[in-house]
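Sample 1 of the test manifest.
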Amino acid sequence: MGSYLLGIDLGGTKVSAAVFDEGNRIVGRARAKTRAQRDDEDVFETIAKTGREAVADAGIESKHLIALGIGSPGPLDPDSGYIVDSVNIKFKNFPLGPRLSERFGCPAFVINDVSAGTYGEFKAGAGRGASHVLGIFIGTGIGGGLILDGSLYHGFSKNAGEVGHIIIKAGGPQCGCGNRGCLEALASRTAMTRKIKKAIRTGHKTIIKRMVDKKADVIPSSVLKEAYDAGDRVVMKVVHQAAHYVGVGVGSLVNLLGPEAVVLGGGVIDALGEYMMETIESVTREVAFEFTTKDLRIVRAELGDDSGVTGAALLARESLSYV
Amino acid sequence: MGSYLLGIDLGGTKVSAAVFDEGNRIVGRARAKTRAQRDDEDVFETIAKTGREAVADAGIESKHLIALGIGSPGPLDPDSGYIVDSVNIKFKNFPLGPRLSERFGCPAFVINDVSAGTYGEFKAGAGRGASHVLGIFIGTGIGGGLILDGSLYHGFSKNAGEVGHIIIKAGGPQCGCGNRGCLEALASRTAMTRKIKKAIRTGHKTIIKRMVDKKADVIPSSVLKEAYDAGDRVVMKVVHQAAHYVGVGVGSLVNLLGPEAVVLGGGVIDALGEYMMETIESVTREVAFEFTTKDLRIVRAELGDDSGVTGAALLARESLSYV
């Protein structure tokens, strides 16, 4: 029989699910498009179906699950399992945890998606062995998670870890959150896209111009990498600037929190990490006090797309002992 | 006899000591000038003497102390009780904890001075009742402390809480730490002094010009308050700008940590809080997400000069159970 865990990662674009055995190995998988524009019940059914498919793929049944965990965009309430709100998905005070628990017949735990990714890296990835881990995931936006003294930190708001919305350049570029100069407005893929489009408008030569649709909202990481590899000056400069700002943000957070490991992941780092990590690390060490950086590890995430499902599942196992 | 605690607050200018009874009431006090330019042994003797005087003032003897705590500038190692380094005081790998323990015949605990202040406010001041408290103390510099899940957070660096050295305006004014745009470089008394001096140099009218010595390093908070009260435009503008930047920093940290209470203290807030708190609060609530601020308290410290001795003493009591 064994005791299996189901981990689900709910994103604005896709839902991933994986079943983990007692040794925390993935023994079944499934994936589907979120189609986030649909109403809450439709999205819920997609989540449930993807979970069921992962269970079937593992060759087990739901009754063999001891718990499930789901990483979701928030804000959310990890205690009640309700999604309070979500920018991309039409959940509004939606009882995602209770509904999944009922559907799968096991305890269900809900956690912020990026916190789940951070927890996955902490337990089974690049943050292994460290007790204090700062996780930063850079993609369309920038999210983060905090492992403090060996536990995921929720804070009083229950949604701590909004690394993307610390202001590092007051009066700087507009952020989607309404502020100016947030880390996300300076170093996310959205921010890079804005800068590249501006360069194109002002007549700078870049191969990006013929690689992407003019109206494309956000340039894919893979395209950025291709242009960088081809030696495109505009893209190289924009990527280095983004890495610089990530370093400014990480350095500030290292001063504040004094972590043992900083784990950087997400689509941008997956594609461009080889070009960004050196700058991120050197700026971080320049910004932060020597006593906070001398034993600090600054590393790339190891689990890729699996960090979310892994973190959600392992956190569910951990949470069982507190039920 | 009762079990008494000795709390000491070591600053660059003065050493304060207070004896606390079982009910955490102050029953004895002493104070001396640090005269920080002297060598480590001389400063140590001043600390020990001030502690002895507080004990005598309480009408007890050292043997009645169950523990002592001292807040000191760092970085330091709370586990070993060593002061690793100190900008203002000539301690370099100085065994302050062990030496005080030997001298007073009781366990001695060493903690960062601002962390001690934050802990004091958390246990006995404006942060009472909250489990997640961000403490920010604004004076010549800006320091902070983090109470997370009911405990003082040290981090892996053992010196977490460097709130003054998060960068909130990349490329901004030079900070004493070598970076540009740190919160301390924008909102401390040192930063305000720099701006006022620049205003004077560029011909702006301000009564500060005749209130302070031209060569004065840092304008005292009391002088800033007097000028503000007199309606001095330059000082009013500089104070409001500082409050704005404190709000930017606090808002960022609230997004990151989701605390329950933010406690603001230190000489600048003691003198100018009535003119700064409204701006700090409104900017914080503008910057941070609504889900992190709706139940957040933003309050002034209540213990004034006693926050450090109180925090050091109460943390010593707390630490005893882990010895």
